[in-house]
Amino acid sequence: MNKRIWLVSRHPGAQTWLNQQGFQGQQIAHLDIDAIAAGDIIIGSLPIHMVVALTLKSAEYWHLSMTIPECWRGTELTPEQMQLCQIKLQKITAQAEDCSGTLILATALKSNQNLRSDSFGLNAVVN
Predict the structure, then answer these.
(1) What is the residue-wise DSSP string for the chain?
(2) Using CA atoms, how far apart are residues 41 and 24, in angstroms rounded to an integer?
(3) Closest listed residue to residue 7, CA positions, set 22, 27, 23
(4) Measured between alpha carbons, how far is residue 49 from residues 33, 53, 54, 56, 93 in Å?
(5) 52 near 15, Cβ under 8 Å?
(6) Which positions ≥6 away from 1 have C-beta within 8 Å?
(7) What pLDDT is attached to residue 3?
(8) Shortest CA distance to 64 belongs to which of 49, 36, 83?
(9) Which residues of 106-124 are buried (b: 16+ CB within 10 A; e: fewer)?
(10) Nearest to 30 by CA among 55, 60, 9
């Protein structure tokens, strides 16, 4: 299976941070779910309904996560500011059920902060 890596962000600081960490892939501002194939790796900050769609396609989703102080919300952050916000990648899978089920939305979260991962095919440090 030929894995493709998609770096999904419209923010230059996030794209720069990912490149600094050694992640190489197709940089895009918007993800077209129809373009994703099983085994693809998607890195970004996507809404949960898209994460469900990626899980159903057997793609890997890595969420770019950080805690942004209120005074920085709505501004473009530099990679250095993102480090101050404890930026990290977290692998997330999601499953949605309709209202007849007891569980409406279940998510599984695996944080791989400070671990090496070769699921990206390059042994990049995941911070």
Answers:
(1) ----EEEE-S-HHHHHHHHHTT--SEEESS--GGG--TT-EEEE---HHHHHHHHHTT-EEEEEE----GGGTTSPPPHHHHHHTT-EEEEEEEEE--TTSS-SEEEEEEE-TTEEE-TTSS-EEE-
(2) 11
(3) 27
(4) 11, 6, 9, 11, 11
(5) no
(6) 38, 39
(7) 87
(8) 83
(9) eeeeeeeeeeeeeebeeeb
(10) 9
Structural domain harbouring 35: 5-126
- Quick one: pLDDT at residue 95? 81
pLDDT tens for residues 3-12?
899 999 999 9
Cα–Cα distance, 39 to 75 (Å, whole number) = 33
User: Domains in the chain: how many in total?
Assistant: 1
Lowest mean pLDDT among 43-47, 69-73, 118-122: 118-122
